[in-house]
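Here is one chain, start to finish.
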Amino acid sequence: MKLTDKHILVTGGAGFIGSHVIDNLIRHNKVTVFDNLSSGRMEFIQPHIGNDNFSFIEGDLLEPDSIRSALKDIDMVFHLAANPDVKLGAEDTYVHFEQNILATYNLLEAMRKSGTKRIAFTSTSTVYGEARMIPTPEDYGPMVPISLYGSSKMACEALISSYCHTFDMFAWLYRFANIVGERGTHGVLVDFINKLRVDPFTLEILGSGKQKKSYLDVVDCVDAMVFCVGHADEMVNIFNIGSEDAIDVVGIADIVTEKMGYNDVEYRFTGGVDGGAGWKGDVKLMLLSIEKLKDLGWKPPHNSQQSIEMAVSSLLKE
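Its structure:
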């Protein structure tokens, strides 16, 4: 599907990744943002307000009538609205069911009733759990998520796939590595920067510090998402999106402290849980195979270290 001259609805469009999706899509399309602003920020989409091809609806996917009316004349949905806090699931077991699974069901039902047939969905590498195959390909199994967040995204993938096959819809499902960059609001980079602004001499690191994962710049991520829609045409298209390498938490801490100009920072490790994980549900090693994405014709222009360096520089300017 060529994303040109379409009317696209972006749920969660005022969020970190969602606002970058808007920046990309609005170049050649009409875009409507649907967001309840629970974590999204109007400042992220402020540059587009006043653009004839942009509109904003403050609404909640937990209100079926609200999303149904927003789907009028929509050609495709980019569904990013979700609660992304992996750690939260160990404290609140309902939040990911409600804000991820139930919200996605309500959206799919509204799409079915309105006749909107195409959806792009942001899933996660955490659906694989502690994968034994590294790099991990899309057909790896069995998938055994270890967080309620990962299980909720896996359930959403299943719902979307079943709706596609039952109601002749089409989907692009993206399993993300860790996405970082300008406007980031959570995650290890934001955590480290906030901690060092309070205490530039000591940095608490959750877990052993040996957790090693893949990172990708948000602009590159969105470029890959749009590329997949334009070049993959199965009923259900599943792609890992990430870089081709990984970096450990200590390496990230080194980049952050250097970028902030702090020397001789003492790292204090919490030791973590389950053999060095930062929290319950934290996957200690994650590197996705992106061979399927490369075969399609897209390759990440930056590796994990470069993505983190770019992200930290952007976040320090905010």
